[in-house]
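Quick log. Single chain, no ligands specified.
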Amino acid sequence: MANTSVSVPASTRPVPDFGNPAGHARVPLAGGAVGTNHPDHVIGTGTPASCTSAGVVGAVARGGVITFNCGPGPVTITMTATAKVVNTSHRIVLDGGGTVTLSGAGKRQILYMNACDRRQQWTTSDCYNQEWPELVVQNMTFEDGNSTVSQSKGASFGGGGGGAIFDLGGQLKVVNSRFIDNRCYHVGPELGGAAVRALAQWRNKPVYITSDTFRGGQCSNGGALSSIGVSWVVLNSIMANNVAIGDGANPAAPGTSGGAAAVPSTATVTGTRSKSRAQLSATIMPARAAVPSSSSVTTTRAL
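-> predicted structure:
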């Protein structure tokens, strides 16, 4: 029988606000939260003990709109297994209502979607450019996630990373969520994103990061965000005290990782504050970021 972890009242660890309260960037419809009034699955029956890791894993595997009923107060669910999206799903919405924290306990990645992973079912002939699954995460907190995957010679596209969330293919959006003290492997030129690692989105649609907070992340590259071949739109968010601790250029060279984000693609950053170590621009890219000539970062202030 699988080990099942129950939720407990939230810890006394101080938690930041959701996103940047001083950010006033306009949020397009595509970047906003989605409706969850009629969920397909509800995790819990009204008490913290009824909200379990197994419940999260099972609901994510089934797909659809997922909400929580864990009682009136904040709760933390310690994950004993990574929740994995099955690629036959269309939209998966995980909505914690602002009170639910998923913890990787410093041992495991929390949420995983990979359209090219045959174990999660292969659904098209081009897994790098398919419309589904679409993963929407909103009103959640992710803490102490840890992608322990190291990069080996000949590793598949993207290497590893994504201590809280890993996504390859399909579509991804994160709204009104917090990422606290997440980790991924400390060395390697093609792994990154202590909080979120995103690769190969459908038709090059952007990953929206809207009103989110990233704090205390550590990884070889991108203490908060990391990607290959992905465009980002970061709106009204905060990045603080995230650090890159490895060799991040490709080929590898010392001192070339991104404290807030390592983004070999494009990024538009609006209404966002970053206090991550060694910034290159005012908001997202640090001075030690490895940015190829094909990359671009557009920063506009709307604070």
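Confidence is low (pLDDT under 50) at residues 254-258, 277-303.
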